[in-house]
């Protein structure tokens, strides 16, 4: 970050303290992004964004307020500080508001500075991105005349985020994100249409897969979905493809969020220290993965991160805590604070992985006999108090480990507590994002069909 920006943050903090804040934190974020989308061989959109924003959170007694601005003249920053202090004095008391415990903050002397390789400074031109998107589209369309392009795109973003607090914490991280995707529509002889796609995001441009592979995989998925049938309503084994398996793990993460636990609005609120999954199941959050999309040495309150076994041998070991939820629960922050510039801290994870099991997807399906492979879901619904869950879905019917035919217009439902207890992970883990899981099988779910 330029020295002028650091000076600006220090100045805002000093002004906030002088105006009556007992404590304050300031964040400065800069982002540059460029993306190109194509459809049917023509450019559909070109988007270029360059933004800079400053966020200020102040604490006056047990009250707090958060404001943000995107213009940084002295007059604007002075008004921002005054407004923040005035808002805080009018806010209700919050006994859990405050800066993070200094003892838990990240300090370079606590751990050798780690280069997590989070930022690739490669700059791609709009012409380069356009060609990538066109190549994705061409690779997919080459598979069949029954295909048409729905969309293809490529782009990247580079960001810098810096946090300063009145307690003396100062930390910054630079990140980049490169992405490309394609989506196709397949049409059969009767005019029935199916859509599917493939996409990938990486920290480094060189880690993106070949554009031809993106197009081919996306097209193959659309073609494979043609001829979908409905199935009878029944109880059946369901294999959740790894593309969407992570959504059920995300439901688990939401249920162990400290904010949800503190509110008492989680179906897992009484389960800390208990077996939630089978003994062979492990779920790990690792903030130190090289080039990981959620990696970082500290969270959005400056608390040092650590590798955490959320589920160890099936047992729930911890809540996900920021400073406020930790105080409310009489615990310590786990380094999972996340915040926008315009709001107080929430909770989020880093790089969560459900560890793979020993059996392939085919072996799990063979052992199950018959059931549904779910490859896409829409409109998922969960009761946060009970864990009752349902979603619309499509995918394939399988028997004896072999795919028989595509299915659509089905619903899958169950109770997440029961589902987690019966979850059996496959061996096909593919690390791609901030929450990753292999495919997994859950028996005895309600499948709604015709």
From TrEMBL:
One of its GO terms (molecular function) is metallopeptidase activity. Residues 124-226 form the Metalloprotease TldD/E central domain. GO terms for biological process: proteolysis. Residues 233-449 form the Metalloprotease TldD/E C-terminal domain. GO terms for cellular component: cytosol. PANTHER family: METALLOPROTEASE PMBA. This is Modulator of DNA gyrase family protein. Residues 24-88 form the Metalloprotease TldD/E N-terminal domain. Residues 335-364 are annotated as: Disordered. It comes from Asticcacaulis biprosthecium C19. It comes from the Bacteria. InterPro entries: Metalloprtase-TldD/E_C (IPR045569), Metalloprtase-TldD/E_cen_dom (IPR045570), Metalloprtase-TldD/E_N (IPR002510), PmbA (IPR047657), TldD/PmbA_N (IPR035068), TldD/PmbA_sf (IPR036059). Signal peptide: none annotated. Belongs to the peptidase U62 family.
């Amino acid at each position: 970050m330029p020295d002028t920006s650091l000076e600006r943050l220090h100045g805002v903090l000093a002004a906030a303290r002088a105006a009556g804040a007992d404590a304050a934190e300031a964040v400065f974020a800069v982002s540059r992004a460029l993306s190109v989308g194509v459809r049917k061989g023509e450019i559909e959109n070109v988007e270029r964004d360059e933004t800079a924003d400053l966020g200020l959170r102040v604490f006056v007694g047990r009250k707090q307020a958060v404001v943000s601005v995107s213009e940084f003249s002295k007059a604007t920053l002075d008004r921002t500080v005054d407004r923040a202090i005035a808002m805080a004095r009018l806010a209700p008391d919050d006994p859990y508001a405050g800066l993070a415990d200094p003892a838990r903050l990240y300090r370079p002397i606590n751990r050798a500075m780690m280069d997590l390789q989070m930022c690739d400074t490669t700059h791609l031109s709009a012409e380069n991105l356009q060609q990538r998107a066109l190549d994705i589209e061409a690779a997919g369309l080459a598979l069949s005349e029954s295909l048409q392009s729905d969309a293809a795109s490529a782009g990247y973003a580079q960001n810098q985020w810096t946090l300063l607090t009145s307690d003396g914490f100062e930390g910054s991280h630079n990140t980049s994100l490169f992405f490309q995707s394609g989506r196709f529509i397949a049409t059969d002889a009767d005019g029935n249409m199916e859509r599917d796609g493939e996409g990938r995001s990486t920290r480094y441009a060189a880690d993106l897969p070949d554009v031809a592979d993106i197009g081919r995989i996306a097209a193959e998925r659309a073609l494979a979905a043609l001829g979908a049938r409905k199935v009878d309503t029944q109880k059946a084994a369901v294999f959740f493809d790894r593309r969407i398996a992570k959504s059920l793990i995300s439901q688990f993460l939401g249920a162990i969020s400290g904010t949800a636990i503190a509110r008492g609005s989680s179906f897992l609120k009484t389960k800390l220290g208990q077996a939630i999954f089978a003994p062979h199941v492990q779920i790990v959050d690792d903030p130190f993965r090289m080039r990981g999309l959620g990696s970082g040495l500290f969270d959005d309150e400056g608390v040092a991160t650590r590798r955490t076994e959320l589920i160890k041998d099936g047992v729930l070991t911890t809540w996900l805590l920021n400073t406020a939820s930790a105080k409310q629960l009489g615990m310590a922050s786990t380094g999972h604070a996340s915040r926008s510039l315009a709001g107080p801290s929430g909770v989020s994870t880093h790089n969560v992985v459900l560890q793979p099991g020993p059996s392939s997807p085919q072996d799990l399906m063979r052992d199950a006999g018959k059931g549904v492979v779910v490859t896409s879901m829409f409109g998922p619904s969960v009761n946060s108090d009970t864990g009752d869950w349902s979603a619309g879905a499509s995918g394939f019917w399988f028997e004896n480990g072999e795919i028989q035919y595509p299915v659509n217009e089905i619903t899958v439902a169950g109770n997440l507590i029961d589902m987690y207890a019966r979850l059996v992970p496959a061996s096909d883990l593919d690390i791609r994002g901030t929450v990753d899981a292999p495919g997994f099988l859950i028996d005895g779910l309600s499948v709604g069909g015709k």
